[in-house]
Amino acid sequence: MDYIEALRFLRDRAGYDRGFVANPFADEGIGLQRTAWLCAALGHPQQHYRSVHIAGTKGKGSTAAMLAAVLRTAGYRVGLYTSPHLHTLRERVQIDSQPIAPETFGQLMAELAAVDAALQAERPAWGPATAFELVTVLAFLAFARATVDVAVIEVGLGGRLDATNVILPDVAAITRIGYDHMAILGSTLDAIAREKAGIVKPGRPVVSSPQEPDAAAVIEAVARERAAPLWLGGREWQVEGSWQDFVFRCPGLELAGLAVALCGAHQVENAGVALATLPWLAEAGIAASEEAVRLGLASVSWPGRLEVLRERPLIVVDGAHNRESAQRLAQAVCEAFRWNRLWLVLGVLRDKEIERIVGALAPLANTCFAVEGFAPRAATAERLMEAWKSLVPGGEAKAFRSVSEALAEALARAASDDLVLVTGSLGMVAAAREALGIATSDPHEQEVLFG
């Protein structure tokens, strides 16, 4: 296969409205069995390197990026598997910060297609592997073929039944747990936490962010049941300070004067999770010096997370897509920036808590440019405007069919000391970056995947 043929093959396996993240509950866990079967048929590529497995509601991607940056700076060859992507599906599979090459992606998917055909012949009742399962196994295989030393693997959805959960990591990490994907993961914090804690493996250490009491209780219980050593944020490890100057402490280690290139108070907590995995990785033979920690955090890049795209007027993008991330974004914007007037360009997926997201952002602005059509699962602009008008009496709300149109009007009306904030989804972020010429996507790839 070439890359486009591989994408066509994946497109026919994509679900969840072409979001390329499978609902792991759709087939009662058979998807995890399919993934394990594919890995076994390929010689268990996920066992050929050290690994860290990261779950959580918010911050797991940033945490993964920070940890990968520190490990690369320490001299290791690092695989990074994350989702979703911004501009190309290949971003999900990175080796030493570079997305997998199109030709490599096509070659590996051709191998996987043959193995998947064998799976369907042997286990017809299981059905075909989903797009997310296939890309997950492709990542494992790519990392093994590239002889990475360590892989940082982000969970796609949940944890317990996610396709990534076939790995046996040297350490697991759980970032802050909140309310997201509730129709799938459950409507209570302890139910969601139980799914996230499903990545904890018997006897393998786990690091967690500070959590709400209900979530912490679940994580502690699961770790205890599985005899997994647990380091809980605020207890075994601590962080204090701002993203520009903070202190990290854990048993046997204290580092002061740290700074992370990703701004926002929440990124200090994410950095703490990443750093708390390092003593456990060192026990597995993957050690990072203090210099590597400092340089890695200071140089990490993770586009679309409180990212400044332009000055005067200031244009900031962030992929906040649930109530907690919107609340953190509102706090971080106030901490990091100053402006005269804020223009909000907002687009949200229809299965999200739209009213709560709007409620978190409403105090920042009195004008909302509501965007629809930026993704297959996008909510209508009308729904966003209804939520906005109910929370901002007398505020302005206007509908747009594209991010580029909304951004153009915001820039036309904004003064040089204003701030234009684009948020609600990583799809919004990607479209804004492309509209400003900062990045491009392959139109052929988009056409193949989404029509």
The number of distinct β-strands equals: 17
Number of helices: 16
Query: Poorly predicted ranges (pLDDT <50, ≥5 residues)?
Result: none
Largest sheet: 8 strands, mixed
CATH level 3 topology of the largest domain: UDP-N-acetylmuramoyl-L-alanine:D-glutamate ligase
The portion of residues assigned to helices is 40-55%
Order of adjacent strands in the largest pleated sheet: 4-3-2-5-1-6-7-8
* Shape type: globular
In terms of topology, how is this protein built?
Blueprint: H1 3-11, H2 30-41, E1 50-55, H3 60-73, E2 78-81, E3 93-95, E4 98-99, H4 102-122, H5 131-145, E5 150-154, E6 171-174, H6 182-185, H7 189-196, E7 206-208, H8 213-225, E8 230-232, E9 238-242, E10 245-250, E11 253-258, H9 265-283, H10 290-299, E12 307-310, E13 314-318, H11 323-336, E14 342-346, H12 354-361, E15 367-371, H13 381-391, E16 396-400, H14 403-413, E17 419-423, H15 426-435, H16 443-450
What does this structure look like?
The chain has 451 residues and is of the alpha/beta class. It folds into two domains: 3-299, Mur-like, catalytic domain (UDP-N-acetylmuramoyl-L-alanine:D-glutamate ligase, 3-Layer(aba) Sandwich), CATH 3.40.1190; 307-450, Protein-Tyrosine Phosphatase, Chain A. 41% of the residues lie in helices and 17% in strands. The protein has 16 helices and 17 strands. The protein has helices at residues 3-11, 30-41, 60-73, 102-122, 131-145, 182-185, 189-196, 213-225, 265-283, 290-299, 323-336, 354-361, 381-391, 403-413, 426-435, 443-450; strands at residues 50-55, 78-81, 93-95, 98-99, 150-154, 171-174, 206-208, 230-232, 238-242, 245-250, 253-258, 307-310, 314-318, 342-346, 367-371, 396-400, 419-423. Strands 4-3-2-5-1-6-7-8 form an eight-stranded mixed beta sheet, sandwiched between helices. A six-stranded mixed beta sheet has the order 12-13-17-14-15-16, with helices on both faces. The chain has a three-stranded antiparallel beta sheet with strand order 9-10-11, with helices on one face. Helix 2 packs across helix 4 and helix 4 crosses helix 5. The protein is globular, with a radius of gyration of 21 Å. The mean pLDDT is 94.
